[in-house]
Design goal:
Strand content: 15-25%
Helix content: 25-40%
Number of domains: 3
Mean pLDDT: 88
Low-confidence stretches: 62-90
CATH class of the largest domain: Alpha Beta
Oligomer: single chain
Distance between the termini: 32 Å
Strand order of the largest sheet: 3-2-6-1-12-11-13-17
Number of strands: 27
Length: 638
């Protein structure tokens, strides 16, 4: 993953691909590359790091790495990337074709060799791919036995080899047959000098859009890459394959039947395209959470419920000497860690402490080689979390990391890592990063339980399958947020608010209060509901809003008792409850409902209203929700 572009037409293809990739830089990436068809051959240029390095290679400032392709060599500098055309023969323009990619590493470390596009043994079939091929291990093993040679650590590389195996003169037929063997999710584009001047694009779970021009056509994973060239777009649906030529686009469903769909004209600016029609990045990123969770689970929870984590996480399967867990993090990541404490202690039966990373090394922690210390950071560069892990390392602990950025400081420092696949998060307030961190902790808890034998294998599978269903439930929640928006209107009227929750949902209350402070500038505090009688109850009056997070679980009745205590003291109660609950709406002024899930999964669904309430309250109060005052996205100094 992360960004795909493709072009067929008369323009200078190298320049156009590079310019389009630059428009996708906001998504984040660790390597990049382009593949261009020219005079019946394919040229591949790849680079680790930023697009500037790729531009230098394409322009001949460094040698072009052919990676086994025919006629590898320095690509020509094509002049103006937007408007320049290739050489023409009279009035007939010379058509050219190419694909490009910015990669955010999943399988295989960030490197030039693992950068996309990837090719088969002969260099005749090239692909750029977003997503996860879940059964790539089995496919790679079988293809290797058949004589295919693999050069990378990626799951993607099986795709061009499968196309090579099935090719019999027609690229789209070979792609359809190849994808029929694939399990997982993908948005991918294929080119080949053996069926030249076309791009075959296919989607299953990862977005792709076709840009329609005059005598030229485009492909991208994001409309932002295309709007400089065309506003006429065709958005592919899951299971569809598109054949893109300079003079037209053909769409087919998974069975090969023709699909007819007219382009849709969009009137977005480049920034609006980055927001994909949403008013703010924060709102877009909240709505991206179902896909972010699917991406974090993809390749890790199989369709049969079997958990298969990457080699980087092997330490979790060999932790016999571990007798306790310490979680260190800051801010929202700390709240994810509090949820992780419930999960790991319940499933793996290991004692867990959760520390503010900023305090951990200053309290002389009791840490030795029996401790597994888990650091959580979206960026992987949070200064306090890095320092906490360094302190734990000095005391002999094993280190594990949950983060969103491959190759970051805490990932390099640790013995093991589980990357979330939230993608780039532009809004300063963490939303999809938080839910993917919680998802990662659920995977870690289940894997520790499996390796320690504290849950039976069938129970681990059952729970993994339940986790796999959650993204669909969140997607359903986000389809209609009118009740949350109505509640936000009430919430925005207050200057003080208490968020209450019990059990595994008290960290959700704390996170919800933090979001309201960050985004709407309303003073808010999150508490375990049982602690209200130990001080905060003194604040209750008709000027105090109390938001109760009360899904139907083993502590539901306890939470409702706190709601009663609030009401008799004239507090204004808002509620988050499970669908079908009749008691909360009878007591609260307004209630938002969430899906009925197993209690250990409930933070994934109860968090979403917390985020949207803060967002809409912030908008109503005129706040800059994407860039709250005084805050930075990553805190890289102490």
């Amino acid at each position: 993953m992360c960004g795909i572009v493709g072009y067929v037409g008369p323009r200078n293809v190298e320049g156009l691909l590079l310019e389009s990739l630059e428009r996708l830089e906001y998504r984040g990436y660790d390597s990049c590359g382009i593949a261009v068809l020219n005079n019946g051959t394919a040229k591949l240029t790849r680079a680790q790091g930023r697009i500037l390095g790729l531009i230098q290679r394409v322009n001949g400032d460094a040698s072009l790495e052919a990676h086994g392709l025919p006629n590898g060599g320095a690509a020509a500098n094509g002049g103006d990337p937007s408007n320049g055309h290739g050489p023409s023969n009279g009035d007939v323009p010379t058509l050219r074709c190419g694909i490009g990619h910015t990669r955010w590493a999943t399988h295989g470390r960030p490197s030039e060799n693992n950068a996309h596009p990837h090719a088969d043994c002969s260099g005749s079939f090239l692909v750029a791919h977003n997503g996860i091929i879940e059964n790539f291990g089995e496919l790679k093993k079988r293809l290797s036995k058949e004589g295919h040679a693999f050069r990378t650590e990626t799951d993607t590389e099986v795709l061009p080899h499968l196309v090579e195996k099935h090719f019999a003169g027609n690229l789209e037929t070979a792609v359809r047959a190849a994808l029929g063997e694939v399990e997982g999710m993908y948005g991918c584009v294929f080119v080949s000098p053996r069926d030249k001047l076309k791009i075959v694009a296919a989607r299953q779970g990862a977005p792709l859009v076709i840009g329609v021009g005059e005598g030229e056509n485009f492909v991208a994973s994001d409309a932002a890459a295309l709007l400089a060239y065309t506003s006429d777009l065709i958005f592919l649906e899951d299971g569809e394959i598109a054949v893109v030529r300079a003079d037209g686009v053909e769409l087919f469903d998974s069975g090969g039947s023709r699909v007819r769909r007219l382009p849709r004209r969009v009137e977005w600016t480049a920034e609006a395209a980055e927001k994909q029609g949403y008013s703010h990045f924060m709102l877009k990123e909240i709505h991206e959470q179902p896909q972010a969770l699917r991406d974090t689970l993809a390749g890790r929870v199989r369709a049969d419920g079997k958990i298969e984590l990457e080699e980087e996480a092997d330490i979790l399967a060999h932790c016999d000497a571990v007798d306790r867990v310490n979680i260190v993090a800051c801010g929202t990541s700390l709240h994810a860690g509090l949820i992780g404490k419930f999960l790991i202690e319940r499933f793996a039966r290991l004692p867990v402490e959760v520390d503010y990373a900023s305090e951990f090394r200053y309290r002389e922690p009791v840490i030795d080689d029996g401790a597994l210390v888990i650091g959580i950071s979206q960026s992987g560069e949070t200064a306090d979390t890095v320092a906490a892990l360094e302190e734990a390392r000095a005391r002999g602990a094993s280190l594990f990391t949950i983060c969103n950025v491959v190759g970051s400081s805490i990932a390099r420092l640790s013995d093991g890592v589980l990357y979330t696949h939230a993608g780039l998060e532009i809004g300063v307030a963490s939303t999809k990063s938080f839910l993917t961190q919680v998802t990662a902790l659920e995977l870690i808890a289940l894997e520790l339980a499996r390796s320690r034998g504290t849950l039976e294998p069938e129970e681990v599978r059952r729970r993994a399958l339940a986790l796999r269903r959650v993204p669909d439930l969140i997607e359903d929640m986000l389809a209609d947020t009118s009740a949350i928006e109505a509640m936000a209107e009430r919430l925005a009227e207050f200057e003080n608010c208490l968020y209450l929750g019990r059990g595994i949902n008290y960290p959700v209350a704390i996170e919800g209060a933090l979001k309201l402070k960050e985004i709407a500038y309303i003073h808010a505090e999150g508490y375990p509901a049982g602690e209200m009688k130990h001080g905060p109850i003194a604040l209750i009056s008709d000027q105090m809003c109390v938001l109760a997070v009360a899904p139907r679980d083993s502590v539901y009745r306890k939470t409702m008792s706190n709601v009663e205590e609030t009401i008799v003291r004239d507090g204004r109660v808002l509620g988050v409850a499970t669908y079908g609950d009749e008691e909360m709406p009878a007591k609260a002024e307004q209630t938002v409902f969430v899906p009925d899930v197993e209690p250990w999964l409930s933070p994934l669904v109860t968090t979403v209203p917390m985020q949207l309430l803060a967002f809409h309250a912030g908008i109503l109060r005129g706040c800059d929700v994407d860039k709250p005052r005084n805050l930075a996205k990553s805190v890289t100094v102490e």
